[in-house]
Automatic annotation (TrEMBL):
<dbReference type="InterPro" id="IPR001137">
    <property type="entry name" value="Glyco_hydro_11"/>
</dbReference>
<dbReference type="InterPro" id="IPR001919">
    <property type="entry name" value="CBD2"/>
</dbReference>
<keyword id="KW-1133">Transmembrane helix</keyword>
<keyword id="KW-0624">Polysaccharide degradation</keyword>
<feature type="active site" description="Nucleophile">
    <location>
        <position position="148"/>
    </location>
</feature>
<dbReference type="GO" id="GO:0030247">
    <property type="term" value="F:polysaccharide binding"/>
</dbReference>
<dbReference type="Pfam" id="PF00457">
    <property type="entry name" value="Glyco_hydro_11"/>
</dbReference>
<dbReference type="InterPro" id="IPR033119">
    <property type="entry name" value="GH11_AS_2"/>
</dbReference>
<protein>
    <recommendedName>
        <fullName>Endo-1,4-beta-xylanase</fullName>
        <ecNumber>3.2.1.8</ecNumber>
    </recommendedName>
</protein>
<feature type="domain" description="GH11">
    <location>
        <begin position="63"/>
        <end position="253"/>
    </location>
</feature>
<dbReference type="GO" id="GO:0045493">
    <property type="term" value="P:xylan catabolic process"/>
</dbReference>
<keyword id="KW-0378">Hydrolase</keyword>
<keyword id="KW-0858">Xylan degradation</keyword>
<dbReference type="InterPro" id="IPR033123">
    <property type="entry name" value="GH11_dom"/>
</dbReference>
<dbReference type="InterPro" id="IPR013320">
    <property type="entry name" value="ConA-like_dom_sf"/>
</dbReference>
<feature type="domain" description="CBM2">
    <location>
        <begin position="264"/>
        <end position="355"/>
    </location>
</feature>
<keyword id="KW-0472">Membrane</keyword>
Length: 355
């Protein structure tokens, strides 16, 4: 039976194991990594003893060209490909480098942790996707329920969440992320063929270095009704490519990374604003905004072309077009707005400043 990677998957998989693939060349389909998922899920479920910060002898660089999971210099790693010349080199601490070309149908690899948590993740380096189907993401799984999740920081020509249901946005770590959900029915997972949801945070302002406050994404998903499982499997900072060529050189570690190299974090960067859908009418729509991390904040909503503010509640709001500013008015940290669409139904982007 053909083996497919996670993140790039067929539309359907028959009970007999025959993959039914789309023939539409304009929308490349994502195939799922059966072998990779099973190996990585099993490895992450095993209690592993790894070297700590006081390791006397660092492991030498190690280049992988065949499928493998394990630990290297205290970090969990995973590497999978279905063909071709993709390779990943494990380097000091949380660093890895990778390269691939069009001879590889699909590959994925990265370094991180055998067990996912609400940790803050810092990563830095270079990512060269070109105009290709590839992405850079914090990636993991949970069980009870079975959930696959992505915090996508950068991608090439194809947004990996295409076709997912948009449920809102969250502003954190100097950028705004779209929150989405998709469902996989009878598809391969870390627990074999299952039906499960995928949760997505896709960064609007692409970057290749920065800090991911994972807890802010988990909390934003929960506010949108997307609850993770109680049993976390692995969590890695992954590079993936599908029928493409590119390279990456990424270092990942736990903890804050200081200034965001793409968008400097605002004063009081603990301010997080999550936007979610309210009622929708024939010519306008409501949005709900939840602010966390501070009780003294300024939220800016950047309305799109043609849109205007019709109404607001639970905040002091100024402006009606372009950039609209909201501040606390004594009614807590949750407020809402009504936006006249005027033919443009794209949600505004949102930023949050503390103080």
């Amino acid at each position: 039976m053909a083996v497919y990677p996670a993140g790039l998957f067929p539309d359907s998989l028959s009970p007999g194991g025959i993959v039914l693939m789309s023939t539409d060349p304009a929308r490349p389909r994502h195939y799922r990594r059966i072998l990779f998922r099973l190996l990585a899920g099993a490895a992450a479920a095993v209690t592993m003893v790894v070297a700590g910060a006081g390791v006397a002898h660092a492991e030498a660089d190690r280049t992988l060209t065949s499928n493998l999971t394990g630990t290297h210099n205290g970090y969990y790693f995973s590497f999978w490909k279905d063909s071709g010349n993709a390779s990943m080199t494990l380097r000091a601490d949380g660093r890895y480098s990778s390269s691939w070309n069009n001879s590889t149908n699909n590959w994925v690899g990265g370094k991180g942790w055998a067990t996912g948590t609400r940790r803050t993740v810092s990563y830095s380096g270079t990512y060269n996707p070109g105009n290709n189907n590839t992405y850079l993401a914090l990636y993991g799984w949970t069980r009870n329920p079975l959930i696959e999740y992505y915090v996508v920081e950068n991608f090439g020509s194809y947004n990996p969440s295409s076709g997912a249901t948009r449920l809102g946005t969250v502003t954190t770590d100097g950028g705004t992320y779209d929150i989405l959900r998709s469902q996989r029915v009878n598809q391969p997972s870390i627990d074999g063929i299952q039906t499960f949801y995928q949760y997505w945070s896709v960064r609007q302002q692409k970057r290749s270095s920065g800090t991911i406050t994972t807890a802010n994404h988990f909390d934003a998903w929960a506010r949108a009704g997307l609850n993770l499982g109680t049993n976390h499997s692995y969590q890695v900072m992954a590079t993936e490519g599908y029928q493409s060529s590119g390279s990456s050189d990424i270092t990942v570690r736990e903890g804050g990374g200081g200034t965001d190299p793409t968008t400097p974090p605002p004063n009081g960067s603990n301010c997080t604003a999550a936007i979610s859908a309210g009622e929708q009418f024939g010519d306008r729509f409501n949005l709900n905004v939840a602010v966390s991390g501070t009780s003294s904040w300024t939220v800016t909503l950047n309305l799109n072309g043609g849109q205007s503010l019709q109404n607001s509640w639970n905040a002091a709001v100024s402006g009606t077009t372009g950039s609209v500013t909201a501040r606390p008015n004594g009614n807590g940290n949750n407020f809402g707005v009504t936006v006249m669409a005027n033919g443009n139904w794209t949600w505004p982007t949102i930023t949050c400043l503390a103080g």
